[in-house]
Design goal:
By secondary structure, the chain is mostly helical. The protein is built from 5 helices and no strands. The longest helix is centred in the middle third of the chain and has 29 residues. It is a multi-pass membrane protein. Keywords: Cell membrane, Membrane, Transmembrane, Transmembrane helix.
Length: 145
Amino acid sequence: MLKRNKGSDKMNPVWETQFKIIKGVLLVNSAIGVIGVFIANPPLPFLVGLLFGTIISLLNFRLLSLTLNKAVKMQPHQAQAYTSIRYMIRYLIIGLVLYISIQAEYIHVLGTIFGILSLKFVILQKELFNNKQYFKNIFKRKEAK
């Protein structure tokens, strides 16, 4: 499933980051699902929505990765057009998922929204809020010139 570098037992750094984020999303959404069982009445539509949102979010994340990997090999003007079109396609997919979630009685829209947004929170937590240098740079005094 995960690609490894040829002649090495180390995982590709991009794959490693994606794998960490996917694991984080599955962990967070499992916790949300357990909480949802106790809060939602009935819990099944919430869990279906959470699963639906999670799957779409992870697929969109993968599409973003494929888009960026292809775009970096293109000329700048081609890359801009390509990524813009792919961006619109990903947002169209999210819109369709939310529409389906609103229309279907067996899918709770709040569960779908949690499934979609959890990826963003996991990325922020893993890649931004864990970076001590980021916070040091924010609170560092500017030196006089």
